[in-house]
Amino acid sequence: MPVPKTRRHSLPAGELPETLKRSPEEAQQTFTRALASAVQASGEGDQAVRAAYAELKRTFENAATTGSRNRALRRRTK
Questions:
Q1: pLDDT digits over 14-63, tens only?
Q2: What distance lies between CA 76 and its chain's CA centroid?
């Protein structure tokens, strides 16, 4: 019997992931815009959510990975 496919990253429309709800407003807006663009390009689903997270990761960095004790996201410096 085949295993049913599941969506690991399915999000209700207009809903942010829990981890982003604690992030700065700018990071939330970046994710929302990137997700809308990805959904328009490739449809709803895992691929769109992964693309939005990739854009967020490209734009922001986790402050904890840079030695800060604050575990929030902050904008990357170029």
A1: 678 888 888 889 889 999 999 999 999 988 888 999 999 999 988 887 65
A2: 15
Per DSSP, the three-state class of 76 is coil
Sign of the C-alpha dihedral computed for residues 29, 32, 36 and 42 taken in this order: positive
Total residues found in the chain within this entry: 78
CB 48 within 8 A of CB 35: yes
Number of Cβ within 10 Å of residue 41's Cβ equals 10
User: What is the DSSP code (8-state) at residue 64?
Assistant: G
Q: Which two tokens stand for residue 44?
A: 């709803």
Find all residues with CB under 8 Å of 34, minimum gap 6, and list them. Answer: 51, 52, 55, 56
